[in-house]
Write a structure and sequence with these properties.
With about 230 residues, the protein is an all-alpha fold. It is about 80% helix and about 0% strand.
């Protein structure tokens, strides 16, 4: 049974590769676009509230409230305004990606050693130069961590998009649940979704470590793992 299923799944991937690849790219691009737009908005907001910390609680609370709304409910609400299809899914991803991006940008910048920024200012750097040459480079690994979390969340949010007419890998899962023997369809949709999330998580986690100014590749001393 197991061997037959593997063979059937392999044959399905082989015979339908162009269709599967198109769904894969649609799923991935909707996730990337939503997170990209969230980065364009969220990183400046994170920088702003790092400068004006009194506003940080309000902004992060609003982003937290958005995050508590179930994804299906969020899509249903946006669908009433934006209609069916891809744009609604991208907007949903955008809203869910704001929290990790804003929060990590804020955290990364506020955690930069004040002695370093003060040294830059004493050398005659302007606030923009301190931000560009000191704070952002030192906070980059934390900001990348926000992108990683946002993208992994986005992959799951986009999966719901099939219910409002967006082309995603969940199309195959839905087809499988409606078929008499739909296990192959379900796996053909679920496996690529899991692979996207795993590859993004591992890839950005690797980049995050490489960009961490405290990371020493020659240091073999065990370090406590941060929880993200």
């Amino acid at each position: 049974m197991g061997e037959n299923l593997i063979v059937e799944l392999f044959n399905y991937f082989t015979n339908n590769f162009p269709y599967l690849f198109r769904l894969f790219m649609d799923h991935l691009l909707m996730s990337l676009y939503g997170v990209l737009f969230a980065a364009i908005v969220g990183v400046p907001i994170g920088i702003f509230i790092a400068r004006y910390s009194k506003l940080s609680g309000v902004v992060i609370t609003i982003a937290n409230i958005i995050q508590t709304i179930p994804a299906l409910a969020m899509i249903a609400i946006l669908m009433l305004v934006m209609g069916l299809g891809t744009n609604t899914v991208i907007m949903t991803v955008f809203l869910y990606a704001l929290l990790p991006i804003i929060k990590n940008t804020y955290t990364g910048i506020t955690n930069v050693d004040k002695n370093i920024t003060d040294a830059g200012k004493s050398m005659g750097m302007t606030s923009n130069q301190v931000l560009r040459l000191i704070e952002l480079p030192l906070a980059l690994s934390v900001i990348i961590g926000g992108f990683r979390i946002a993208l992994v969340v986005a992959i799951g949010v986009v999966a719901i998009g099939s219910f409002i007419g967006a082309p995603t890998l969940t199309d195959l899962i839905i087809r499988g649940t409606n078929a008499t023997e739909g296990t192959v369809y379900i796996l053909a949709g679920a496996i690529p979704i899991a692979l996207i999330a795993i590859i993004i998580d591992f890839g950005l986690r690797f980049l995050e470590r490489k960009l961490d100014p405290t990371h020493n590749p020659d240091d073999q001393t065990p370090k406590a793992q941060s929880v993200n």
